[in-house]
Design goal:
The complex is a heterodimer.
Chain A lengths: L7 H19 L1 H5 L16 H8 L1 H34 L2 H12 L6 H14 L6 H26 L2 H9 L4 H29 L3 H6 L6 H11 L4 H31 L2
Helix pairs in contact in A: 3-12, 4-5, 4-7, 4-9, 4-11, 7-9, 7-12, 8-9, 9-12
Chain B lengths: L10 H23 L7 H8 L1 H34 L2 H16 L2 H12 L4 H8 L13 H25 L3 H9 L4 H29 L3 H6 L7 H10 L3 H36 L2
Classes of the chains: A mainly alpha, B mainly alpha.
């Protein structure tokens, strides 16, 4: 059988576009190891000066910790709500599945700035501005659609008869779920949690509107980029690029494994 | 009627969305017309001043340009991935997925490094002897466009790819066997079948572009501000009601344009299906 082969031109084009997508990001890493005062390429001298500046600056560290705290709380909320919703969707009758999925994923189609402004105006009236908990919940609402999509796809792959068998053998509904359905679902839930974590950790505009007193990491980066671009941003970006890449690769592998091994 | 027990599991999600998406949206609508008495003055101001109309028109124009560019650039990329053996497809998809999940703030910052006065492109141009003075690339519309396309391209590639995996490649082989030249087989068989998914991708990219905030603010000049930047500016000046009116306009414009794009796209698709290319 004749196979379809891409032409040399198409292959070249593909790698050109991959370079366009990845190169500007990768280039930040060598720049972050420059030891000069200003942003310059190629750097004249290499060193860890800006990484040291980041790790010894209490403002940057405080911002990182705030972001981390908000992201952890937000991940707990969105993963719990999203996984439960994913279960409800994939176990409900066929005709209800797509309306429920639409309802749960609606935040994806609304511009963040719109959500940010709405949450901010509401928080102003209820005196809830500057609350990390309110921010975590708002981030959770934005991240939940991703959790719902990932977990409901994985649940659909699980054979419900195993859970039914557990019920027949005398397990209660919660126990049957815990023994039969939950274990194969864990990789998908972990993958969803990683995605949800970074949705919150990277989110700027909702935090920018809601928080006045304390600062999240994206807010700190934003403030820095707006005033004068200090090379500390390059160091932070370098760290984030590496951490995000590793975390996302793990999440993607887990998600794929969840779908692949569960498939009949 | 009794609710199915399984649906109770949907309740936490529903509450979260109600409290942090639905309720704030209504409050935003309310704030845009009550200040504190009912009045449409904010919307009047929006449509009477040329500056604001300019920003709205520009937001639509830039979003359309980004959506079309992403589609034109991304479609062949997705096609290429689709032609690879299964295992290699997974690896190539990784190359697309990883930048997709990278923070937009970081990806925009990366463009400052590339396009800045002492950035990569300027240094390269000077080293090759093309220029003696740094070329101004930051704070231009071109910089905003290049970065927005780079940021959103992975999404369109994945959407196109998802649509293409549904297509049976045997159909192309069949067309070839029946005497179609490769180009014909692609244009008459493959392209029409992938059109619907591609159109969905185009609409998604358009929608995401409409709310873009970080990239125009950091890479563009005053002339590149979009609706989201205007909203932030008004919030900083404590004009919440006017900001709310802008938010409502942003949402309405986005929805209206999506309806238009879908209808227009369908019409185009039907013509292509009927008459070939």
């Amino acid at each position: 059988m004749q196979t379809l082969k891409p032409s040399l031109l198409l292959t070249g084009y593909f790698w050109l576009i991959v370079a366009y997508m990845i190169f500007p990001v990768v280039i930040v890493i060598p720049v972050s190891f420059a030891s000069s005062e200003f942003l310059r390429f190629p750097p004249e001298d290499f060193g860890v000066r800006w990484y040291r500046a980041y790790f010894t600056d209490p403002i940057w560290i405080a911002a990182t910790i705030t972001s981390f705290r908000v992201a952890v709380l937000s991940t707990l909320i969105s993963t719990t709500c999203g996984t439960l919703a994913g279960l409800a969707i994939s176990r409900s009758p066929q005709r209800m599945q797509s309306p429920l999925t639409y309802a749960a994923t609606v935040p994806i189609v609304i511009p963040h700035i719109f959500i940010a402004l709405g949450v901010f105006i509401l928080a102003l009236r209820m005196n809830l501005t500057d609350s990390e908990i309110a921010l975590a919940f708002a981030h959770a609402a934005v991240a939940m659609p991703f959790v719902v999509l990932i977990t409901s796809a994985a649940i659909r792959q699980i054979d419900p008869t195993i859970e039914r068998a557990a019920r027949v053998l005398g397990a209660g509904p919660v126990r049957a779920f815990r023994v039969a359905t939950l274990p194969p679902l864990i990789p998908a839930i972990v993958a969803a949690a990683i995605f949800a974590f970074f949705v919150s950790f990277d989110e700027l505009i909702i935090a920018q509107f809601l928080m006045k007193g304390s600062e999240t990491l994206p807010m700190r980066i934003w403030a820095d980029l707006r005033l004068d671009i200090s090379p500390v941003v390059a160091a932070v970006s370098g760290l984030l690029i590496v951490v995000t890449t590793i975390a996302m690769a793990c999440a993607e592998i887990l998600r794929r494994r969840a779908v692949a091994t569960l498939a009949p | 009627m009794k609710m199915r027990p399984i649906l109770w599991l949907f309740l936490p999600a529903a509450l979260l969305l109600a409290a942090f998406i639905v309720l704030p949206s209504f409050d935003l609508f309310r704030a845009s017309v009550f200040d504190p008495e009912f009045s449409t003055k904010h919307f009047q101001r929006l449509f009477e001043r040329g500056v604001y109309l300019d920003v709205m028109w520009r937001t639509i124009r830039v979003s359309l340009a980004v959506a079309v560019l992403c589609t034109v650039i991304g479609y062949p990329v997705a096609f290429f991935i689709n032609l690879q053996p299964r295992r290699r497809q997974t690896i190539l998809l990784f190359l697309i997925l990883i930048p997709m999940w990278m923070s937009i703030l970081i990806r925009t910052y990366a463009w400052i490094v590339v396009l800045g006065r002492d950035g990569l492109v300027n240094e390269a141009l000077a080293a090759l002897g093309f220029t003696t003075e740094p070329v101004q690339m930051l704070f231009t519309s071109g910089a905003v466009l290049a970065a927005m396309v780079q940021i959103l391209l992975p999404i369109q590639i994945l959407t196109c790819y998802a649509a293409m995996t549904e297509i049976d490649l045997d159909l192309i082989r069949a067309a070839r066997v029946l005497g179609a030249r490769p180009r014909q087989a692609l244009a008459r068989v493959f392209l029409p079948l992938s059109l619907d998914g591609t159109l969905t991708g185009l609409v998604i990219i358009f929608m995401l572009s409409m709310g873009f905030f970080i990239t125009p603010a950091l890479l563009g000049g005053r002339q590149d501000r979009m609706i989201a930047n205007l909203i932030e500016f008004q919030v900083q000046r404590l004009n919440w009601s006017f900001a709310a009116a802008l938010g409502v306009v942003l949402l309405v414009l986005t929805v209206a344009m999506i309806v238009l794009l879908r209808a227009g796209g369908r019409m185009l698709a039907r013509r292509i299906l009927k008459g070939g290319l």
